[in-house]
Specification:
The chain is about 15% helix and about 45% strand. The protein has about 290 residues and is mainly beta. The chain has two domains: about 120 residues, Neuraminidase (6 Propeller); about 170 residues, Immunoglobulins (Immunoglobulin-like, Sandwich), CATH 2.60.40.10. The chain has a four-stranded antiparallel sheet with strand order 4-5-6-7, with no helix packed on it. A four-stranded antiparallel sheet has the order 8-9-10-11, with no helix packed on it. Strands 12, 13, 14 and 17 form a four-stranded antiparallel sheet that branches.
């Protein structure tokens, strides 16, 4: 299967040789010819048929033949039109075999697969939060024991392509409120297809100053929200599994200080954030007594 160039126009033809190119049978079978350039043919045998892929006008086409003499009308398989990568060809894709090519979709590179011209699948990443893997834990701080300041969970790329860098954000929602408050974030530097990793994100430090602020911040906490790639930097196979809500309460985070929640809530009632100084000093005094124990 060769490119035949005539008057600056490339076509694809079938030429027959029985001695590895030492001699050629007369004549040529036109496989794909048009006013456009047909280039870069790739041939495979599938289901007792010859299947040929080629480029025409920067699109990928497929044609089939039972005998190398008669060929079906070529069908375009890519959807981008003008944005395909220079690579395409036949290869394994999971347990299947077919044609793989790359194209730009919504400004991002994706890999696509076609077992036949009617079935096109995209090779995309699919990052998700693993169910039942999320928990609050601590780093065994000697200053304030049993304070669960770390959110730990597993993430996985269940897609068929590697994922690039993305950010995980943690938010908090209080009881009877719709607004969410940003708490922490962490950047993940890529996740390979099939890879699963555990992520630990520190919600706050356990030094005295940060503990005081955290005891105030989490008053009336109702849930923690994990969001992955919220800006949709990664084009995925499934965009609906990038968020998880974990129901928590004050004692989930501060098991030794759950009794402080109502007291702090009453102390701060009606005050703005800039007016918390007296409350912070009182809480710091309480914590200092626990540290000295």
């Amino acid at each position: 299967m060769l490119e035949s160039i005539t008057k600056d126009n490339g076509d694809i033809g079938f030429f027959l040789t029985l001695d590895s190119g030492g001699s050629w049978a007369p004549g040529v079978v036109d496989v794909a010819s048009s006013d456009y350039d047909e280039r870069m043919p790739a041939l495979c045998i599938r289901d007792e048929k010859f299947v040929l892929s080629f480029e025409r006008g920067y699109d990928v086409y497929v044609t089939e033949s039972p005998d190398l003499e008669t060929w079906t009308e070529p069908k375009r398989v890519n959807s981008a039109g003008g944005d395909i990568y220079p690579y395409y060809g036949f290869s394994d894709f999971g347990n299947d075999y077919g044609m793989i090519w790359g194209e730009i979709y919504k400004g991002k590179p994706v890999i696509k697969f076609s077992e036949d011209s009617a079935d096109v699948r995209e090779g995309l990443p699919d990052i998700l939060i693993v169910e039942n893997s999320v928990n609050l834990c601590n780093n065994n701080s000697l200053i304030l024991k049993k304070t669960n300041n770390i959110l730990s969970f597993e993430i996985e790329n269940a897609g068929s392509a590697d994922a690039g860098d993305f950010i995980i954000e943690i938010y908090m929602r209080r009881k009877n409120e719709n607004e969410i408050t940003p708490i922490a974030f962490k950047e993940i530097y890529g996740l390979k297809s099939g890879e699963r990793v555990r992520v630990n994100i520190t919600l706050f430090d356990t030094n005295l100053k940060d503990m005081v602020k955290a005891l105030i911040l989490f008053v009336r906490v109702d849930s923690l929200i994990i969001k992955m790639d919220s800006s949709n930097e990664i084009y995925e196979d499934n965009e609906s599994n990038n968020e998880l809500v974990l129901k928590v309460n004050y004692s989930s985070i501060f098991p030794r200080f759950s009794w402080l929640e109502n007291a702090i809530n009453n102390l701060l009632n009606g005050k703005k954030e800039g007016e918390y100084r007296d409350a912070e000093q009182l809480i710091a005094q309480v914590l200092s007594e626990y540290i000295s124990e």
